[in-house]
Amino acid sequence: MSAKDMGHDWSESADVVVLGFGLAGAVSAIVASDQDSSADVLIVEKMPERFVGGNSRASGQTIFCPTDRDALRRYKMAMDEPNPLPGPVLEAWLDEVVVLEGWLTTMASAVGHRYVHTNRGNANSVLVEFPEFPGSECVKFNSTIEPNPSGVWNCFHRHVEKRRIRTLFESAATKLVQDPDTREVLGVEVTSGSVRRAIRAKRGVVLCTGGFENNLAMQRNLWGVDRVYTLGTPGNTGDGLKMLQRAGADLWHVRNVTQSGGFWPAFKVPEFEAAFMRRSRLTHFSFIEIARDGRRFNNETTPYRLRHAKQLIHGRWVDAPHAYVTPAYMIMDKAMMDAAPLVGWFSHPIGWNSVVLGYEWSADNRKELGSGWIKQCDSIAAIAQETGIKEATLGRTIAEYNQSSAEGIDREFGRPAGEMLPLAGPPYFVIEIVPAIVSTTGGGRRNAHGQVLDHDGRVIPRLYEAGELGAANPNLYQSGAFLTDCLAFGHIAGRNAVRERPWAN
Question: Percent of the chain, pLDDT > 70?
């Protein structure tokens, strides 16, 4: 006997239940509501209302929406290699992306915001991340919605508030309710505090719960990295991935290069659950980075922002090295400390700690020194005591670096002479440098309709997916593609979920 015949102890019901209130969840709900104004659409969010928005709220707000379909197809296929999207999924993604501009302009204007192009390839541009790839000419601009920070997120948050879309906060989805015979998704179990309840989804469930970047155990077991921290919401702990596994979904994009968005050099402090992204456009260069063995391990001034923290090694784009040498440390002198803040370089704040929690890193890094996040060391012996690295090794590393600076040649890593100022001291200043990520991409395998597939490639009925969870970014990443995936598959999933025929009245 099926769950529908047996009945279920439902606490409430809706036509479409969207799990997760980031950009993908917002767009899915908006499109479902606009497609059928009579539909009852409910968004369920695990975080408190003041923390709504997920990674979308804390991101750089860049949107990637070229209009040249043929060139975009070539560029996307080159970035995805060697793990291409299935043809129908790629074409569905293209269908949405190339027409986003008009819709975004209308949506922004409707709530008093502005859709704008943010750059067009000036001399200092990081517009095209892989200009050597076929089709890269499709990237003529990046886009956003202003005002920032959080302009894109704020626009769609306001659209949800304008519609007859219900919201339920501080309610963590834990399990999909399925018909035991057909595996049809009938609803979802959620936990609010100590209370567990079941919500019936009469037409469908859309999973938009984000990734697993704030779950160190999943990072270790699924990705194989020791310690990588989130730059976004602390709420992304892999809930959706666990629900998908229980539901019998096939998984994809769990181990793509640098989880697409990149391993960024960052700082993690006890007072904050998320990490702080280190300033990428450094303005002073009297510092080094050392690994656990006390040796330098890379060109520290590599402009990671140009390729979303990926580097070209022997003709292949691979991860930035920080995730594989932890614990690692940044050692600098007083001139570096005083020159500029170690955190913050965008035209507007990014990252959870800055955008949502409102932390402002001090201009001379002295507040962070006073907080104990940065350690002052008055000798190399003190650095050794602070880091647990042998004093002799540290002394040799600093002496070799200063000799390279004097000669203007970094024979080991090719750091440019103009970005290799001597490390003067004491005093020295030390902070642990950790790898941090924007998003993960692992999730359920989707089809062109946004439906989740099982291990045999069959649709799990009434189950849809959008956004970071299972994102259509299987390898390399062009700036803005995560928000674009939220918009594209938010459209697809919301539109198709609301078209399902209700299974119960």
Answer: 95
Contact between 283 and 486 (Cβ < 8 Å): no
Close Cβ partners of 484 (under 8 Å, ≥ 6 residues apart): 63, 64, 65, 97, 100
If we measure between CA atoms, which residue out of 238, 209, 339, 231 comes closest to residue 285? Answer: 339
| pLDDT at residue number 319 | 83
Task: Give pLDDT, residue 258.
Answer: 65
Q: Break the chain into its structural domains and give their ranges.
A: 3-257+438-499, 262-437
Q: Can you give the pLDDT at residue 126? A: 67
Run of H or E including 106: helix 100-110
The identity of residue 372, as a single letter, is G
Contact 84, 474 (CB under 8 A): yes
H-state helical runs in 15-99: 23-35, 54-58, 69-80, 87-97
Q: What CATH number does the domain located at 3-257+438-499 have?
A: 3.50.50.60
Element at 358 (helix H, strand E): none
pTM for this structure? 0.94
User: Would you say 226 and 326 are in contact if contact means Cβ atoms under 8 Å apart?
Assistant: yes
The structure tokens listed for 395 are: 């002394």
- Amino acid type, 195: V
Least confident range from 27-31, 261-265, 297-301, 361-365: namely 261-265
Q: How far is CA 387 from CA 294, 344, 423, 486, in A?
A: 9, 25, 18, 41
* Mean pLDDT value of segment 181-209: 96
Question: pLDDT, tens digit, for every residue of 385-443?
Answer: 999 999 999 999 999 999 999 999 999 999 999 999 999 989 999 999 999 998 899 99
Residues 6+ apart with CB under 8 A from 79: 130, 133, 475, 476, 477, 478
Choose among 249, 192, 261, 227: nearest CA to 441. Answer: 261
Contact 455, 437 (CB under 8 A): no
Residue 325 in tokens: 């040498």
- CATH, domain range 262-437: 3.90.700.10
**3-state percent helix, strand, coil for the chain, nearest multiple of 5:** 30, 25, 45
Check if the beta carbon of residue 170 is closer than 8 Å to that of residue 48.
yes
Q: Are 208 and 41 in contact (CB under 8 A)?
A: no
Judging by beta carbons within 10 Å of its beta carbon (0-12, 13-18, 19+), is residue 170 exposed, middle or buried? middle
- SS3 state at 63: strand
Any idea how long the chain is? 505
